[in-house]
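Standup notes, protein team

Yesterday: finished cleaning the Tritonibacter multivorans set.
Today: Putative 3-hydroxybutyryl-CoA dehydrogenase structure.
Blockers: none.

Input for Putative 3-hydroxybutyryl-CoA dehydrogenase:
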Amino acid sequence: MDVQKVGVIGAGQMGNGIAHVMALSGFDVVLNDISQTALDNALAQIQKNLARQASRGKIEDAAVSAAMARISTSMQLADVGATDLVIEAATERETIKQAIFDDLLPHLQPHTILTSNTSSISITRLASRTDRPERFMGFHFMNPVPVMQLVELIRGIATDEDTFQTCQTVVEKLGKTAASAEDFPAFIVNRILMPMINEAVYTLYEGVGNVRSIDESMKLGANHPMGPLELADFIGLDTCLAIMNVLHDGLADTKYRPCPLLTKYVEAGWLGRKTQRGFYDYRGETPVPTR
Ligand SMILES: CC(=O)CC(=O)SCCNC(=O)CCNC(=O)[C@H](O)C(C)(C)COP(=O)(O)OP(=O)(O)OC[C@H]1O[C@@H](n2cnc3c(N)ncnc32)[C@H](O)[C@@H]1OP(=O)(O)O
Ligand SMILES: NC(=O)C1=CN([C@@H]2O[C@H](COP(=O)(O)OP(=O)(O)OC[C@H]3O[C@@H](n4cnc5c(N)ncnc54)[C@H](OP(=O)(O)O)[C@@H]3O)[C@@H](O)[C@H]2O)C=CC1
């Protein structure tokens, strides 16, 4: 199938990044959210990121306005219906994603491929509640989307080959690389990355190091581009906790238990960069460790 029009549901950091790269690669995009503010912020962020790419000579100036012109926004799920490919990128909570699919299904064309950018939730289970499990799969981008090369493609138990090949072709058109992962909790990247981040929070919780020493150690000692706590703030602590809970429940192994300190930060509403406070406080000029 030839994908031309893409629907993106959820205009947070991932949704705006996905809309950005899709529009830049020539796809028409309908970006949906329940909040007009989120849609406005997403458009402003996309414009800013495209302008930065142009100022660094990565893309032509004309590509900025051309990409922006390909993106429309809507708070009505019905407007997402007339697309060839839908990528759901709303909050990492299964009930939210299920409700979105329930509301969206009556508006979809028969040929539309439905995908989720979920970091961890079972693709097979999400698919089973839709009318098209064979045309459903995981389409998992990495953050920040315009920069990261990888997209994990996850087949549910019923996903057909045509759906997989169509998504693989879209990834190639984006100039990115697809990795195929089986449908088990958190797939490949987060199965490995998130326990490392959780262990960093345990290291903080047990007083082995403080925020700065833990991050410096992993940056200078293991050549990670960001320390694990800085990365957790970047991803969103609510998303990190949700992924740990999926690993813990789905694999029924105590080695995946979320650190109580991670839970406490989320309960405080300290979700990282998106709320201006997490393991660092971002309200001043430079980030200040909170521990
Ligand atoms: C949770 C999940 O489900 C899965 C996940 O996504 S896990 C998270 C995966 N992501 C990571 O691990 C990211 C780790 N961090 C990094 O790779 C780097 O710190 C980084 C790429 C984010 C920033 O790199 P840096 O060298 O410190 O900063 P900087 O020089 O400012 O940026 C490098 C490039 O990225 C671009 N960039 C940085 N942040 C960006 C953003 N949010 N959006 C768009 N572009 C961005 C910059 O413009 C710059 O572009 P050029 O090379 O064209 O000049
Ligand atoms: N953060 C990351 O590094 C990565 C995240 N992901 C996955 O991508 C998805 C989105 O994550 P991320 O962008 O970080 O999260 P954000 O919190 O930044 O954005 C989520 C957006 O979805 C919106 N939303 C919530 N409910 C609905 C709904 N019913 N309909 C439409 N929009 C809705 C939220 O609105 P409001 O704010 O009003 O609630 C918010 O704007 C998650 O599944 C996550 O696991 C995947 C790869 C990396």
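Follow-up from PR in the comments: Strands lie at 5-9, 28-32, 71-74, 85-88, 113-116, 136-141, 150-155, 177-181, 280-281, 288-289.
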